[in-house]
Design goal:
With about 375 residues, this protein is an alpha/beta fold. Helix 9 packs across helix 10. It binds nicotinamide-adenine-dinucleotide and zinc ion.
Length: about 375
């Protein structure tokens, strides 16, 4: 790795926490827990899949270091990120007599991080959490920023709390067991970060796509470092989500619509990849985005094995309809982040980071952007 392995994140309240990124970092977890989240007992919360793959090893290493730790698991899958699992986990902690001097270790993907983080945020009015992300998506995105919570019937992530971790420990070696399509889906958020803020990173990813796709630990470590630094900077600039933080939604206006229409059979990263392609083509059609940008983006996504053309199947009017229902739509317009070029987001005439598009203008533009080759 060319970068130092520790990234310091500052939080709006003036505090902060470190992110340790290093192949083999998991071996040093007891050390990190002892330093950043000293506690009488540790509740290691994992989903059933991750608990099987690395639970015993983590518990043993904490025990070897003299830390009292117990593994508490819940069934894997997004559909278990619910209030019911939050009750069940909180009750399990209570039944085992975990007191105020407890720290939670959230060992798993984004579902575990959000759910275990929410348990930590509320247990005894809040105990520390150490985030140990085991999917690329969780390493790049969900373990940083302090958002925790659960899904409800009314929508995803609607009940939750901000609860910053005491520390984040990223060990790229744990990705070796993650299925490739999950790893590739995680790369979509990295491509997004490069597209909105960092042309150099975009170039590096293009050159490093093969090692990234195969999960090479050094390449992944460097990627996490470079991407998380951007996310942290954007969040720091706009903690209340009133301005620049909107740029993190590039690809997500169309992406969320595709996710909804495909009934969540697409992974989030796959939907975002398709959404970025469409939004880049939209920007070019509106002469806001530099010509050639959509092609460069599509080429990097293809190198990351995110070229499923998921945007080609739904009907354009259904996509417009789904976009209008998305939470980023204000009033009757749909708002969309558009690039000026790779590495830079365009501003609308009012200086806003999103562009308002009426349903009437969106329809024909989107029809062309969803299927660019259809009438060629
Ligand atoms: N809090 C935030 O800021 C934020 C940001 C983005 C996404 N999210 C949330 O993240 C969630 C998605 O996260 P995800 O994609 O990591 O899903 P996930 O946690 O469900 O993990 C995906 C699958 O991979 C398995 N898995 C995890 N690590 C593994 C490993 N090392 N080897 C083998 N299998 C492994 C899990 O058991 C699961 O079956 C969503 O709920 C989303 O809302 C939160
Ligand atoms: Zn996303």
């Amino acid at each position: 790795m060319t970068e130092p392995a520790v990234l310091e994140i500052t939080t709006p309240g003036g505090g902060g926490y470190p992110i340790h990124i290093e192949p083999g970092a998991l071996r040093r977890l007891p050390d990190r827990c002892g330093t950043y989240a000293p506690a009488h007992r540790y509740a290691v919360i994992s989903d059933s899949q991750v608990a099987r793959l690395c639970g015993p090893q983590v518990i043993a290493s904490l025990a070897d270091a003299g830390l009292a730790a117990e593994l508490i698991e819940f069934p894997a899958g997004e559909w278990n990120k619910t209030r019911e699992q939050w009750y069940a986990l909180s009750d399990a902690l209570l039944a085992r007599g975990f007191g105020r001097d407890t720290a939670v270790v959230a060992l798993g993907g984004g579902v575990t991080g959000d759910l275990a983080g929410f348990v930590a945020a509320t247990y005894m009015r809040g105990v520390p959490v150490v985030q140990v992300p085991t999917t690329l998506l969780a390493m790049l995105d969900s373990s940083v920023g302090g958002k925790t919570g659960v899904d409800t019937d009314a929508g995803k992530n609607l009940v939750g709390a901000f609860h910053h971790p005491a520390a984040v420990v990223v060990d790229p070696l744990v990705l070796s067991t993650l299925p490739r399509h999950q790893r590739c889906a995680g790369l979509a958020e990295a491509v997004k970060t490069a597209a909105i803020r960092d042309d150099d990173l975009f170039g590096w990813m293009t050159a490093s796509a093969e090692p990234l796709v195969s999960g090479d630990a050094d390449a992944v470590g460097e990627l996490v470092h470079r991407v998380v630094r951007h996310k942290a900077a954007v969040v720091r600039e706009d903690p209340a989500e009133r301005g620049v933080r909107a740029i993190l939604n590039f690809g997500h206006t169309v992406g969320h619509a595709l996710e909804t229409l495909e009934g969540y059979t697409l992974l989030h990263g796959e939907a975002v990849a398709a959404g970025m392609r469409v939004e880049a083509r939209l920007g070019e059609a509106l002469e806001i985005t530099e010509p050639g940008t959509a092609a460069r983006l599509a080429a990097l996504l293809a190198a990351c094995r995110l070229d499923g053309e998921w945007e080609g199947s739904p009907r354009p009017d259904a996509v417009v309809e789904a976009m209008s229902h998305d939470k980023k739509a204000r009033g009757s317009d749909v708002r969309c982040v558009l690039l000026s070029r790779i590495g830079e987001v365009a501003r609308d005439p009012d200086g806003c980071h999103t562009f308002a598009l009426t349903e009437a203008e969106l329809g024909p533009l989107l029809a062309a952007a969803l299927r660019p080759d259809s009438d060629a």
